[in-house]
Design the sequence.
C-alpha cells in the first residue's frame, strides 16, 4: 500500500503559523483586524405583501386577492 496519511485537522495555532510564514505577520494581523472591524450589511427582506403568489404559497402564506392589471382597467 502506498497511501500517505494526511492530517486534515490542523489546530488554529498551526494554521496561523502557516499563514504568518507564507504572508508575513503584518499582513496576517491586518487581515484579522479588518475582518473584526468590517461590518456586514443586513439583508433587507421584502414585505410579505410584495411577494408573488407562488412564493407566498411556498412559505405557507395564503395567496393575495387578485389585483387587476393595468390592461384590465380599460
Sequence:
Amino acid at each position: 500500500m502506498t497511501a500517505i496519511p494526511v492530517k486534515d485537522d490542523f489546530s488554529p495555532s498551526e494554521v496561523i503559523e502557516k499563514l504568518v510564514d507564507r504572508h508575513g505577520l503584518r499582513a496576517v494581523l491586518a487581515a484579522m483586524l479588518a475582518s473584526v472591524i468590517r461590518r456586514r450589511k443586513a439583508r433587507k427582506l421584502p414585505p410579505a405583501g410584495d411577494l408573488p403568489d407562488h412564493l407566498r404559497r411556498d412559505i405557507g402564506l395564503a395567496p393575495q386577492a387578485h389585483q387587476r392589471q393595468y390592461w384590465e382597467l380599460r
Notes: The helical segments are 12-23, 25-37, 53-58. The first helix runs from residue 12 to 23. The chain has a mean pLDDT of 82.
